[in-house]
Amino acid sequence: MTLIDKKNQKAVRVSYKPGRHKAIAESAFMRKRGQGIAPTEIPAEEAWEMADIVWDAPEDEVLTIGSVEDYLWGDDFGEIMGLVPCDNCGELVSKVYLRVVGKSHMCIPCSGYER
To answer: Residue 78 pLDDT more than 70?
Structure first.
């Protein structure tokens, strides 16, 4: 995900490290979110099941945090769900942000595309 500070026009990329993303993506919570079910409509135990995948992992196995970059905020694209791993780096990517390079489906940074 990209965390965006609209006021200061800055952003940072944060992603799950490969290894945990499959369990997260396949959790009941994320499957329901992918179907468009609001988080408040998903039973709490299913949300905690997903959270525990991260909570129970060693800290150095959970997140990759990029550098803070300038980010010119544009249109609000709304909520985007449906996550698949990038064929290159394994980071979970919203389907609408996948880029096709040859036969591979990649996140924007791996694809070489600007956006």
So the answer is: no
